[in-house]
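Hi R.,

Here are the chain sequences for the assembly we discussed:
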Amino acid sequence: MAPDALQGIVRQQTNAARWNGAGWPDFVAALCAAGVEVAESAATRGIFATDAGGTAYGLPHGVVVARSAAQVAGLLQAAQAHRVPVTVRGGGLTTEGESVAYGGVLLDMTGMSRVLAIDADALTVRTEAGIYWHGLAEELRRAGLDYLSAPLNMTSSVGGTLGVGGIDVNSARLGCSADQAISLQVVTPTGEIVECSDSENAELFQRVILGYGQFGVITEATLKIRPYTPLSMHYYYYSTLRSAIEDLQMLDANDASDYSGILTIMDCAVNLLVAFDSSEREAAFKANWEQRLRGHGEFGFALCMAGHYALRPWKAGEALYLLKRKQAVFPEFRRPEFHRDGRMEDRTVVFSRAVWKHWGSRNMVIPDLATSADKFIDAVERGNAVCRKFFPHYTLYCVGIKLRPEHKPHYEMSCVPPDAEGWAYGCEFEPMIEDAVYSRDHFQSFKNAIYDIGVDLGASYYRFGGMMKGYIRRVFGDALVDKHLAMKRRADPAMILNRDVIF
Amino acid sequence: MYSTAHPRDYPACSGCSLCRLVCPMWRSHRDPRFSPEGLAKARQNGAAVTELADVLDACVLCGACDPVCPENIDLGGMIMDLRRDVPARPEQAALQTGYRKAAAAPDAAPAGALLLPGAALRADAGLLARVLELLGIGCATDDGADIALALEIGGAIDPGRRRSFLDMLGGRTLVVGDGLLLRELRHWLPGARLQGLGEALGNLGAIRRRIASADFYVVEARAYHADHERLVAHYDALRKESGCSMNLDLQRIAIPGCDEAEASWMLKGRRPARILVESPAEREVFRCVAGVPVLHLAELAAPNEEMHNA
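And here is the predicted structure of the full complex:
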């Protein structure tokens, strides 16, 4: 194990060191001469002081709003020459500071957020990569089309998602969101504008997809799309994680649904959601699989819960919390303006609204574990015990990810665990912060306790960068990390691009 | 879940960027400074209001940011407050003075429900007459146009003037043509029966029946967002009933037809047979960019028809 293997493993937050600013004025002068605006006011830099997690803080020396691939190329060439760190940001939906700049320049990709061309016959879209998935959906829907898969959060950007993976409730069927990328326009760390795909500049494509921004800036993407369909959604309720996960994996293995996932209120109310794009698929599920599920309907589960807590009066507080949470959250998933004829029209809007309203807060820590199918129940149960230890209230979110054998090179040193075959499974462990105040060390200890499970199980993580990058060598091993580090050094001689994320 | 304990002003902004998704100012500039989040963060980082003048000027006060903010910050109110600290342009100040003088000695308001048409509708006498006939209510000669403009430009509102205006309105059912004034009247006259012009006309059977599935219906953003929770249901019912498409995005937030760029983006990928607008100002914008008939809602029904049907 390398000497730096334990960096960041101590039970305290491990912010990256701030860049010292050497060469900044010359860098800015070079950009200004090229007609690139570098915003240096505190007001502009302050917009990017933290990410969605709200626990990592850092200010860039300046901000550049991306406008074109040529502009980004010029920026990266100047950054190489002046050895100025460049932190690239899309929606900023990281939680470990991966999109926070500790000095240097912050490149805001949302300036490149236009849909360039929709091909309804070939079912593809070409878009600038700084676009929010929500913005892409907005234009696709006018043509009766939709993207395949994207995080259930409206402020995720296309480029950011392709760089890390992206999980949707249809990932067990369609794979991670990055799998829908057909080709990309990438600006390399040395400023070349390159088109890449599985057949053209394949090595760059493999490194950029799920590459955590180390090997280039994605400026445009061609994505597969599909005809839009509203969803028919069903919910089944369980009182144990194990039975719900077993049923989730049974459905995934048998291709029994179009959408599946688990969302919980602690480990007390475990909701398996199952949804369908078509009446035919729904009917087949009802005929062949529904009776095999061990979950209850809402009324049946309420009766079970009433019985459970009647026998355990000392748990009245927990019962009251469940009831309050149900009353707050359930109507959000059933708002009539997002449904028509019993079908959900805008799943990302419905889920994202609910997430921001009922799960979001100023501080969010969401450690996760990604494992092979057979290790998943163990991982979730152990992670659940950690949640119980650290927080009174929390949520678990579990989904499967269909793996594409031909994409195996994309998955190297990524959130996809190396031993997964067929499906990988991911679980996010999210404490409900509510009005409570926790120290950073409390959050960090919680994350470490979850990540230690991953090391023990030989798993991977979705959020292994930023403040958690100390785990990278522990989970991937020196040989693989050194291989990628050598590739990074070749591609990015001054090590300027997103340098605090992985290496 | 966000805390309910902290203040609901710009210090509460956590930078989630949800307001950017719906902001026409951001869509136009694609620059984080040009968004409510950008303004809130700038203030949090000590920016003086004068440094933000360009951004404040670019905001169209459509109110789209208010219903989507998970912190429940009154972002529209924040921007209107900040505008008060930026000197108004001379022509705007002169216009406000003109409206103020016109309202100085109003005729006695007719009894019963009143229409406050607002400057844009009042400027089109034919359309105003048609609206009044359809709604069957009286028209206020003092419709608070000076107050509405002051709200828009950050001008001062004399407390005495505001009091006399509100006294004149007290206890009536009001249909308000200016969305920004409607927003404030909801605060100033809690419990009053208030409707926007679009909602009032859309409730008339003679108009509702004529909205077709091939139409593109443009909801007036300010009035809609000022009462979003309730009006979402109103417009959702209208959409389901008529089958028309609307300028509501996937979050059911209204995209304002504030300029030709926004109107063009709204129509991108759409081929409506007609465009129906609630706001006379938006009618003019769409006429510049759309190659199809653009009608105000009141132009859908023949004069007297609603009264004959009643």
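The first strand of chain A starts at residue 62 and ends at 65. Chain A has three domains: 3-111+483-491, 115-227, 232-475.

Let me know if anything looks off.

Best,
T.
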